[in-house]
Amino acid sequence: MVGKKVNLSLRLMLWVSIALARVPDTLADATPPKIDLNKLNIMGFYEVPQGNSFGFVLDNAKCGLNPADAFFEIDKGENVESILARFRKELSDGCEIDELYVSERIDESSLKKILVAADVVKVNKKEDLTVRLNSPGGSVYHAFEMGKVIANNGWSVTVREGSNCFSSCVYLYAAGARRGLGGSVGIHRPFASDLGKEIDNYAEYLILYEKVTTDIKNYLATFGISPQFVDWLNVVPSDNIRILKEQELEDLGLGARNIARVEFKKARDIAKCGQTAYQALLDFQREDEACGNEGLPSKVCLVESFWTFPAAVSCVWPSYEESYEADVESIKTSPLSEKGNQGLMDLGFLFSSKKEIEDSAEPLSAICGRSYLGDLLESEVLYSTCRNKNIGDRTCLFVTAFTYPTIFKPTTLCERLVRNPNFLSDS
Asked: What are the structural domains, with CATH classification, of the chain?
């Protein structure tokens, strides 16, 4: 009788947790701003100008701006000092850069702007910048240099719905550490202007064209892009465009993952932690995926995998154990967020309501003991408090796991029961 009660209670508990985890933070009935579709592209929560534009998309919440004012144009010839001076004059303290927007023909001016933008981003201490692309292309060799800036800084790229990345813009897209695609990516043969000089005869044209296509192959090979890319663009006239389908992009190596970046991170992790720890990391990722396939909340899977393969976690996230006391102190001293005060984030590790705790307390206590139940409930309070203070989910997960390790190490009947409500009926 007790087993059935536990099974039903925990099954309900987990299904409700999963359902609530899918509810977005933003209100479903929020009214979108009125936008003149003839003048603007709608991209996310921001409005960015159509046509020739190059500049920063700002975090309108942290900058105290309306969406229509959240674009900061970088003018031709501006240097880092003048941009920072405009930041101080026009924007509030704490204003942050969200994205870099490139929507103009690629040329020498574009290259100078992205070099200046990179220096501004470093001063702004922006990490994981995304470059939003909406360009018709331009100079092949200037695109190569812009792509190197993107790659060297580890920036991601995206082509949003309604946007295009054509011709040499693709070389910026190829360089992204991660690639997002909602719009169109298109290719064609380089223009005669990309060959470097005026051409008087066909034989000279062929020699110069071979050099350009060889340079394109070498550039793209850096990012793991197939040489078939050049074969495809060779048969598309320069005044036409071939839109690449999603599967074609994957086949060429232009999918979401940048294989060169993946291999770099692999080599770095092996060099830092050793082959054994790297193998543990792969096992950790497989365990986490298998747990998720059982339909359990991702936070439960992450922490269980953490305790199963601690070597992987100590390799990839060594700072968590080192900064544990500082993280706990942050939880104690941080004020409750506005959402926390409204109770919108009052979500624990496993339980999603006080009623679920009450319904599950008796059967859990009977099976696992009151001590285990007490620690489990305390862990719920710690995690919920942490998240209600707007502290990052992963920090809250690991602080909870370090504070109550016996709850989440998958070694006992009770922990297995919490992880899989079908355990008793399957036994």
From this structure: 2-25+274-426 (no CATH), 40-262 (3.90.226.10)
